[in-house]
Amino acid sequence: KLRTIWLCKKMNERILVTGGNGYIGKFLVQRLIAEGYSVGVFSKGVGEIPNVDFFQGSILNLSDLNDVIKSFNPDVVFHFAGLTIGNSEELKTVNFLGTKNLCESFSGKIIFASTPLVYLGGKVPFVENDSLSANGAYAESKLLAEDHLKKRGNTLIFRIGVVYGPNQNNKMFI
Length: 174
Known about the structure:
Number of helices: 4
Number of strands: 6
Strand content: 15-25%
Helix content: 25-40%
Oligomer: single chain
Order of helices and strands: EHEEHEHEHE
Largest sheet: 6 strands, parallel
Structural class: alpha/beta
Strand order of the largest sheet: 3-2-1-4-5-6
């Protein structure tokens, strides 16, 4: 049985998931609840997940982030909020500025969802020390966020590939 405890120090930690209403976020939240963590969700959408503290707001609004951090007082933040589709400016604004705002609001451990698209021209499978270079606007926005988080420290970055599973919108695939 896979356990999430290695990501967090103790089972009584409070974990906030930004983008917790998204596809990956919902599954993560359900797993964290099953593992016994106290979970909060920060999302621009309406709360749909039972047994969590839900906070509606925008990662682009520093006041919203400050309020949720003060109210929920998380030990760890899984940062899954962001855009995957949009023009270069929209992607940069949400994915980079949203991450920068989170860093300003929260000094604890951040676990960040990035993309393997930050590896340009590397052979699959990618390895951690492969060269990084933005491969399109989405990858550029994630790479900017990664760079900011690396300078901050106290961060774990996951580069998550294409995800497909239960209840997935099948319009994404041919």
